[in-house]
Structure to design on (267 residues):
């Protein structure tokens, strides 16, 4: 299938690993020029070297909690490529977990800063560039947690629910300008974030990571029908479609890539 996006420029946040890097690679294979954004220099440099074996790419170090760094990243990207057509926001953290009564205001605010407000900042920064050309694609990565509550992950759940609502509102605001906004909601994907979760679980259970994953699926994700962690590439495939010309009539949608993990028929 020809995605029709050869020569477009994509900004991918959280691009140094996981879903972000897998998405950048797939887009690069389609001839898209990539700007990777992340805050850790060493991992970002490694990701860039990997990505440049596939296609044209640059890396920009930026902490999305700070608007000044997001704006500086935009200037850097525009100076290099001249324009931006696609924004994929993959940056995120698990945030504080545990009993609600033990989670502090600071814990909540840290999670909201990274998982919700970072999306707000990058959209406010890059959407105007797309409106100028009359063509754009924005994909915000949410989570199954946005619609399926987990009592020990409340800040993350709330932030990702906010991302879904934010994406829907953006889709209403800018579709008439040619900027199509959608979201993707993965569940339990094999990424550095879930690696850390499973390593911590294994240590707590005094077992190995494989057993930690198996028991997590049984006890915490019983509706994940495929009984395995998803692959970053499986999420990237859906994101790439939403970035393409082939998604020209998809606006304000949320695509779940969750192995069946969400039990209901909601969003």
């Amino acid at each position: 299938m020809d995605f029709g996006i050869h020569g477009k420029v994509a900004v991918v946040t959280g691009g140094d690993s996981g879903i972000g890097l897998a998405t950048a690679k797939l887009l690069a294979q389609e001839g898209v020029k990539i700007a990777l954004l992340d805050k850790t220099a060493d991992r970002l440099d490694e990701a860039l070297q990997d990505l440049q074996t596939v296609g044209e790419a640059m890396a920009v170090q930026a902490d999305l909690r700070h608007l000044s760094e997001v704006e500086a990243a935009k200037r850097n990207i525009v100076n290099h490529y001249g324009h931006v057509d696609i924004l994929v926001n993959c940056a995120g953290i698990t945030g504080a977990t545990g009993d609600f009564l033990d989670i502090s205001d600071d814990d909540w605010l840290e999670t909201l800063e990274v998982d919700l407000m970072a999306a707000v900042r990058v959209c406010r920064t890059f959407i105007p560039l797309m409106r100028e050309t009359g063509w754009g694609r924005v994909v915000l990565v949410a989570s199954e947690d946005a619609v399926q509550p987990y009592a020990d992950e409340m800040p993350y759940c709330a932030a990702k629910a906010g991302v879904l609502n934010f994406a829907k509102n953006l889709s209403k605001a800018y579709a008439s300008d040619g900027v199509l906004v959608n979201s993707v909601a993965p569940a339990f994907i094999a990424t550095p974030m879930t690696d850390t979760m499973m390593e911590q679980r294994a240590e707590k259970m005094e077992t190995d990571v494989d057993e930690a994953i198996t028991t997590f699926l049984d006890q915490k994700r019983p509706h994940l029908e495929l009984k395995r962690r998803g692959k970053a590439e499986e999420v990237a495939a859906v994101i790439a479609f939403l970035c393409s010309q082939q998604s020209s009539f998809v606006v304000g949608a949320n695509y779940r890539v969750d192995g069946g993990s969400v039990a209901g028929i909601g969003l």
Notes: The first helix runs from residue 18 to 29. The longest strand covers residues 179-186. DSSP finds eight helices and seven strands in the chain. Residues 9-188+231-257 form a domain with the Rossmann fold fold (CATH 3.40.50.720).
